[in-house]
C-alpha cells in the first residue's frame, strides 16, 4: 500500500514540475514574442543570452505569413531585432533545408521580405545565408490566383527591382531568366528585331538586342510555361530601366571567379555561416567578402557596381 502511495506521489510531483516547466516555457515564449513585436532588440538579446529558444512558432493574426519569430520580425520590418547578437545564427527557419525542417507552405522569411519590398530587412537575411530558392505559396487577392514563387520571382513580379538586384548580388542565379528580362525590356521600350542603345548611370553605352516575337507555333509550345514579368506591378522604381539592364547583363554573362568562389564557400557552409567564418583562419577582408559585408542598399539614384566592383 505504501509503495503504491509512493508511486502516486512521485507521479504527481513529476506532473507538477512538468506543468510548472511548461508554464515557464510559455512565459518565456510570450516574452520573446512581444519583444519582437515591440522591436525591443535589447530585451530580445538578453533573453537569447539567458537561454531563450528562438525556434518558436506563433499564430500572429496581424501577419498571416508569420510562423516563427523571424517571420514576425520580417513581416513587421523590425531590423533592430534582426541585429540582436546571434539571433539569426540561432534561427533554423532562415535556412529551411535538411537537416532543418521545412517552413509552412514554403513561406520563408525571405519570401515575406520579398512581399513587402523591405530592403533593410532582407539584407541581414542574405548575409546569414538565407535560402532564396525555396518556392512558397503566394495568393494574389486581386486576381484570386495562388502562385508558387521563390523570393526573387515574387519581388520581380511585384516590381521590387532593388530587392532583385540585392538577391543577385548575394548569389541568386538568373542565367535562365534572360528572355524574361528581355521580354520586359521589349514591352516597355522598343520594337522587336531592333538594337537599342541605353546609357546607364555611369554614362556607359549598353547595346541590347531585342529579340523578334516568337512564331505562333513557338507561342503555342510555350503557352504552358510561366513567364516572369513585372507587367502587373503597381509601382516600379524610377531607375527600373537601369536595374533591368543590369539584370540582363547578369543573365547574359558568367560570374567572376571571385564571386563563384565566395558563393561556393557560402553554399558549402550553409547554416550558421557567421560562427563558421569566425572560426576560420582567414584575413578579415576575405571574411568580409564571404559574409557579404559589401552588400549595399542602393537607393533609387545610387550608382551600382555590384558586390565586387568599384566602391560607390
UniProtKB/TrEMBL annotation:
The keyword Signal applies. Gene3D superfamilies: Ankyrin repeat-containing domain. Keywords: Signal. This is SOCS box domain-containing protein. Residues 1-22 form the signal peptide. Residues 240-296 form the SOCS box domain. PROSITE patterns: SOCS. The lineage of its organism: Eukaryota, Metazoa, Spiralia, Lophotrochozoa, Mollusca. Transmembrane segments: none annotated. The keyword Signal applies.
